[in-house]
Design a protein that fits this description.
alpha+beta, elongated, six-stranded antiparallel β-sheet
């Protein structure tokens, strides 16, 4: 394909990726703990000297997480908590594998086990579920991630402590949907700890982290991408017309 068409086509694909990413971010404007995604690209390397190689244009789009902490919103649940640094809560996936989330909207299931909003188990430091003994009431999480409850004698007793995790390169985490992430080959070293200890910030009980999507920035990105997409479309049309003219001349 001639260079002008290849360059225009790659620009169309990249700017469509930007528009799709903006739409995804705006759809999660009110999703608690959601981290916005930014579609990025780097220019292609210079083509070697010689005939048209078709290597000009826009490189493949990459998507990075924007990990800035969002505003914390007050919650009336004693089991809700927000992370105050770059760490992630750990929950257990359907196959038992660890998954990671920023959203601390936890609750108790019918068996008294601490779970996330979709019923996924929140394991303790020993990897086992955090579960209230039968008859215990008024469960709550504190700043250290300790789950406690009132026992049969009216005394508050600790049950266990949840864990948090951080990655050397969290921007490379793969978004699975529903506020869940999993590591990739580029996320680097995983460090697991407990809130308030070993370099991890304490939690903010009684709060939830909101989405960090900035509506104004998203609309700016959308307008820029729309104009760039239009320019690429016009470029493609010009290139196609030039190719048609060249074909006629050579006949």
């Amino acid at each position: 394909m001639p260079t002008i068409l290849a360059a225009a086509a790659s620009g169309l694909v990249h700017n469509q990726d930007i528009l799709d990413t903006v739409a995804h971010n705006l759809a999660n404007l009110n999703t608690g703990g959601f981290k916005a995604i930014r579609a990025l690209h780097q220019g292609r390397p210079e083509p070697p000297a010689g005939p048209d190689t078709g290597r000009l244009g826009v490189a493949l789009t990459t998507r990075d997480l924007l990990l800035e902490t969002a505003a914390l919103l007050a919650s009336d649940s004693p089991l809700h908590a927000a992370i105050q640094d770059g760490a992630f809560f750990i929950v257990r996936g359907e196959n038992g594998q660890p998954l990671y989330t920023r959203y601390g909207g936890f609750q108790l299931d019918a068996e008294g086990t601490l779970v996330d909003q979709a019923g996924r188990i929140v394991p303790g430091v020993d990897g086992e579920p955090l579960q209230l003994p039968q008859g215990w009431t008024d469960a709550a999480l504190d700043a250290t991630g300790t789950l406690s409850a009132i026992d049969e004698n009216g005394q508050r007793q600790p049950i266990g402590r949840l864990q948090v995790a951080r990655f050397a390169n969290p921007a490379a985490l793969e978004l699975l949907g529903q506020g869940l992430y999993q590591p990739t080959a580029n996320t680097g070293e995983l460090v697991v700890g407990t809130p308030g200890d070993e370099g991890f910030a304490p939690l903010r009980p009684g709060t939830l982290e909101s989405s960090n999507v900035d509506m104004a920035q998203e609309f700016v990105a959308m307008l820029v991408a729309q104009r760039a997409y239009s320019a690429c479309a016009k470029t493609f049309a010009v290139g196609d017309a030039m190719l048609e003219l060249a074909t006629r001349i050579t006949r």
